Amino acid sequence: MRNIIIESIISEMEKNENIFFLTADMGINLVEKVEEKFPKRFANVGIAEQNLIGVASGLANLGFIPFVYTISNFVIHRCYEQIRNDIILHNNPITLIGTSTGYDNAPLGPTHHSIDDWGALRNFPGIDIYCPGSISYAKSLIKKIIDNKKPAYIRIPKGEFIKPDSDQDIVLLEGNNKSTLLITYGSPAQECIKVQEKNVDISVLVFNKLVSLDITGLKETLAGYDRLIVVEDHFASSGLYGLLCEFCNSNLIYKQLTSFAPTYYNFQVGRSSSYFHKKFGLSSEEINGKL
Amino acid sequence: MVDPKKIRKTILQMLYKAGASHLGSNMSVIEMLVAMFSSVDCHKIISGSNDRSRIFISKGHCAAGTYATMAYFNIIPFELLETYHQDDSLLTGHVSHEVIGVEHSTGALGHGLNVAVGCALGLKSKNVQDAKVLVLCGDGEIQEGSIWEGLMFAVHKKLNNLCVLIDNNRISSITMTYDVIDLRPLRSRFEGFGLNVYEVDGHNISEIQDCINKATDFSVPTVIICNTVKGKDVPFAEWQPVWHYRSLTEALYNEAVTYLDNK
């Protein structure tokens, strides 16, 4: 879906001369067309994420709307203080685009596993966090972000996901009864949808936007199910599980939330994300086995 | 020309009333600040015109000096200085963009320079020919790796509208800067990164101004190494690392003011 995001940005850059695209030397066969079309609104800062955010902030000072692009882990951890001080404190409308989520880069080792990225941003007020779960949502996202005029982070899973075919921030795929609700986002959402395909009683709630939460109807939805299971490729307490624990508590929804999530950094090779999904109970087979 | 002695007296008053620290760091940059604000159009800064030249204070803890200088350049009112470090005031101990004239809030070192680089890039993108971006950094601050990320990029992109002034007061927060990390000779460090470099007496306003004016003659960004004295013109504080943190007693405040009055 990264190509859809880049194409959306190019489309907006054609209409809006204030949009500026920066990369930290990532995006081969993707970013070149941005540079070719808009050489004066493109910059590759090199492998220098702190400078990436600083430069974006300087551009924002002049009224530009910067989009910065690199791998999810790097765009957050390497320049965490820059995000805090140069983006959040100034409410600069800068969008961080992180490619690869969860175990998308499975065999490359834990430095490239994005299982702790967006949770780190939950620390900060004033930044929206998205994880587009489908092509439809990805196509609608960039325009939405530009209109919001605030900091944002998009974590882009690998893959071209068709379902859920929606541009809504939260999508309920209702099953036949209100027994079990799988709550999910990103790549694990595809596994949950597979679970529903085999068991039509299961409902799936897919989050395309994680922060700030679209709470319209969310309380009623969660309260309506017996069992709530959060399935995510991110550490639980800083992830959606933690966020929903807070939400349920403050809305007096006294249900047990169960977490299926990674719990540690893993040094074994997994040839693909399936290895880790199986290990941490995120695959459709593992989920089915526990239901 | 704004008188640095008056600015120093104002700073002493501000720091004493607030019980605040950073006396040494503020006193070393006064001539640099005067040179910087004299080199830009302050009316455009006040009006927020997007094609304005910009000043970034990357060494954010010289807030008192920056605010005092801005008052003498009529950017902020003198009455506001009395609220420095007081409850509900916007004049925090590190420069704040909530205060008119301050482009970017800094405090954590190694941030402001990169933002200045972004501004310089943006001005080039918009083809704004006659605006410059000046940024004030500390000599301890250049130990931050992000500084060099910014400089490398600025040289590569030929951002000759960027001018970096280093307050080379040679003392960081515990001891001499070169005893922590010895980067001497600074000049060749910066030249090695492809920058145009000047080295001047950091308390000579016209020398600094001259370098700022000549900076755009080159195809690369300029660094002006300003050799300064930490605690300048406060005799008991000059060259004393402890005056990075120490605050003024009544007796020391009076001693400092008397010295400036008689200078």
CATH architecture of chain B: 3-Layer(aba) Sandwich
Largest sheet of chain B: 5 strands, parallel
CATH topology of chain B: Rossmann fold
CATH-assigned homologous superfamily of the largest domain in chain A:
Thiamin diphosphate (ThDP)-binding fold, Pyr/PP domains
Number of helical elements of chain B: 12
What's the architecture of the largest domain in chain A in CATH terms?
Answer: 3-Layer(aba) Sandwich
CATH class of the largest domain in chain A: Alpha Beta
Provide the low-confidence segments of chain B as ranges.
Answer: none
Structural class of chain A: alpha/beta
Oligomer: heterodimer
pLDDT averaged over residues of chain B: 97
**How much strand content do the residues of chain A show?**
15-25%
Biggest sheet character of chain A:
7 strands, mixed
SSE pattern of chain B: HHHHEHHHEHEHHEHEH
Count of runs of 4 or more consecutive helical residues of chain A = 12
| Total count of strands of chain B | 5
Strand order of the largest sheet of chain B: 1-2-3-5-4
Please specify the SSE layout and strand pairing:
The complex is a heterodimer of chains A (291) and B (263).
Chain A: H1 2-15, E1 19-23, H2 32-37, E2 42-44, H3 49-61, E3 65-71, H4 72-77, H5 80-88, E4 95-99, H6 118-121, E5 128-130, H7 135-148, E6 152-156, E7 170-173, E8 180-184, H8 187-198, E9 203-207, E10 209-211, H9 218-223, E11 227-231, H10 240-250, E12 257-260, H11 273-279, H12 284-290
Parallel strand pairs in A: 1-2, 1-3, 3-4, 4-6, 5-6, 8-9, 8-11, 11-12
Antiparallel strand pairs in A: 5-10, 7-9
Chain B: H1 4-18, H2 23-27, H3 30-38, H4 42-47, E1 54-57, H5 63-72, H6 78-81, H7 112-125, E2 133-138, H8 145-156, E3 162-168, H9 177-180, H10 186-192, E4 196-201, H11 205-214, E5 222-227, H12 250-262
Parallel strand pairs in B: 1-2, 2-3, 3-5, 4-5
